[in-house]
Design brief:
Blueprint (H helix, E strand, L loop, with lengths): L1 H19 L8 H12 L5 H5 L4 H32 L5 H42 L10
Helix pairs in contact: 1-4, 4-5
Length: about 140
């Protein structure tokens, strides 16, 4: 029993770790120094440095994060269904429950993956339109 719990924790931590490692330090002293450097170099204005994130971009990032969490949840459900299938000991009702869990989680994962791909596509198009419509700030998107 302890091995199953330990194995489950290792697998789940491996699934959650990529999300945790994507964290960025954008607050506090680092953020203010970067803003001051951009204003000092003439690459941005004080007003745009104070509010650098467009709300549409922020909404797309939040939706993407939520979809990543849901994808992780559905993968965990598939793993849970697999454990139930292994531990069913030939009991047909437990096998049916495990198969049902795996099937439903797989369908949910496919839906989440499609939603994530649509969100990524739309978010990229929104970013492109924002860059084309925004005034020149000294940054060049083409290199």
């Amino acid at each position: 029993m302890k091995m199953n719990i330990i194995a489950t924790l290792i697998v789940l931590s491996g699934l959650v770790m990529p999300i945790v490692t994507q964290a960025q330090i954008t607050t506090g002293i680092y953020d203010s120094q970067l803003q001051a450097g951009g204003v000092g170099a003439g690459l941005t204005t004080t007003s745009s440095a104070a509010n650098p994130t467009d709300p549409r971009v922020l909404a797309a990032e939040i939706i993407g994060f939520i979809l990543k969490l849901l994808g992780t949840l559905f993968v965990a459900l598939i793993i849970t269904g697999g454990f139930r299938l292994i531990k069913s000991d030939g009991d047909s009702s437990k096998i049916d429950q495990a198969k049902e869990t795996i099937e439903k989680a797989a369908v949910g994962l496919v839906i989440i993956l499609m939603a994530y791909s649509i969100t990524t596509f739309v978010g990229n198009r929104v970013n492109e339109s924002i860059k084309k419509a925004s005034p020149q700030t000294g940054f060049s998107s083409e290199q």
